[in-house]
Design goal:
The protein is an alpha/beta fold. The chain has a single domain, classed as Bacterial extracellular solute-binding protein, family 7 (D-Maltodextrin-Binding Protein, domain 2), CATH 3.40.190.170. About 45% of the residues lie in helices and about 15% in strands. The chain contains 13 helices and 11 strands. β1, α2 and β2 form a beta-alpha-beta unit. α2 packs antiparallel against α10. Keywords: Signal, Transport. InterPro entries: DctP_fam, TRAP_DctP, TRAP_DctP_sf. It comes from Rhodopseudomonas palustris (strain HaA2).
Length: about 325
């Protein structure tokens, strides 16, 4: 009798726990290093909203902006370990996993974001999304930010103006070579450390998009910004490939749909957010925005472009040619 009461009670308990347990959503963490009021920040929030909607609540997405959970140094490792499921690092930060993606770091390669978009949508660009699968990283999408501008506490109008200065760079050997070519010193630093490094003078200058220069307040500690458009900061949204491949087809499809729509939102707002950030910096009066004459621009191209030959064999000539062709 006692035994049967126990059995009945256990079945009743299971009946309660069973459906409740089945309803527990899968918690998915999305970690990134920028502010919410940037293209990536907005797109991550959109992805959360849509992924939860399309999976009917089976997935709960937690977004951690501003290096809150993991900064540059740790986020890739965190994906590999399964501590976080989604990250969207700048393309410059895949340096240690593949040299091919470094094509995006070549200075003066793309005329504008439309050209970057065409390259990413093409055969080679799409293949790069899967180029790190053996390292367990799977790219689900590219997200745009924008073209890079260069700043310091002195006007940078000619390449010689950068001589002797120390510039913060992302962890990319191409970006290091780009500044060495200007007789400047590159310093690899995590994004979360840049403001302070500029403020205390550990570094003299930096390169970034308008939205990052504005949202991280770099313009408050940099007197001069040159609208150089000399490179690009874009992102690849990556997941742990084993984790992704282990999800049901339904969940994958729903999250892919959410990702495609969030990507569209990202790419629709990126240009606007960068333009607005530029206007806000201009009207703050905190730093002066300099334009280059065509002659000055030519000098910057000549000073930076030798980097291409240096990295051509590591990246692959075909890839560089395809990227160049996307400008047409
Ligand atoms: C940087 O480190 O400068 C940027 O890549 C940060 C970002 O994610 O936009």
């Amino acid at each position: 009798m006692r035994k049967s009461i126990f059995v009945v009670a256990s079945i009743a308990a299971l009946a309660l726990v069973g459906p409740a347990a089945a309803q527990q959503p899968i918690v998915v963490k999305f970690s990134h290093v920028v502010a919410d009021n940037t293209p990536k920040g907005q797109a991550a929030i959109k992805f959360k909203e849509l992924a939860e909607k399309y999976t009917n609540g089976k997935v709960k997405v937690e977004v951690y902006p501003n290096s809150q959970l993991f900064g540059d140094a740790k986020e890739m490792e965190a994906v590999a370990l399964g501590d976080v499921q989604f990250i969207a690092p700048s393309l410059s930060k895949f340096d240690k996993f593949t040299k091919q993606i470094q094509v995006f770091d070549l200075p003066f390669l793309f005329n504008d974001i439309a050209a970057v978009d065409r390259f990413q949508a093409g055969k080679q660009g799409q293949a790069l999304l899967r180029s790190m699968e053996s390292k367990n990283f799977l790219g689900l999408a590219y997200w745009h930010n924008g073209m890079k501008q260069i700043s310091a506490n002195r006007p940078l109008l000619k390449p010689e103006d950068a001589k002797g200065l120390k510039f913060r760079i992302q962890a990319s050997d191409i970006l290091a070579a780009q500044f060495q070519g200007l007789n400047a010193t590159p310093q690899k630093l995590a994004f979360s450390e840049v403001y302070q490094a500029l403020q205390v003078g550990t570094v003299d200058g930096q390169e970034n998009t308008w939205s990052n220069i504005f949202s991280q307040k770099f313009y408050e500690v940099q007197k001069d910004i040159t609208e150089s458009d000399h490179g690009v900061i874009d992102y690849m949204v990556v997941v742990n490939a084993k984790w992704w491949n282990g999800l049901s087809k339904d969940l994958q499809d729903a999250m892919k749909k959410a990702m495609d729509e969030a990507t569209k939102v990202n790419n629709d707002v990126a240009g606007k957010l960068n333009d607005e950030a530029k206007q806000k910096i201009a009207s703050s009066g905190a730093s002066k925005i300099h334009q280059l004459t065509p002659e000055q621009r030519k000098q910057w191209v000549e000073a930076m472009k030798p980097v291409w030959a240096k990295f051509e064999s590591a990246i692959g000539k075909d890839l560089i040619d395809a990227a160049v062709a996307s400008n047409d």
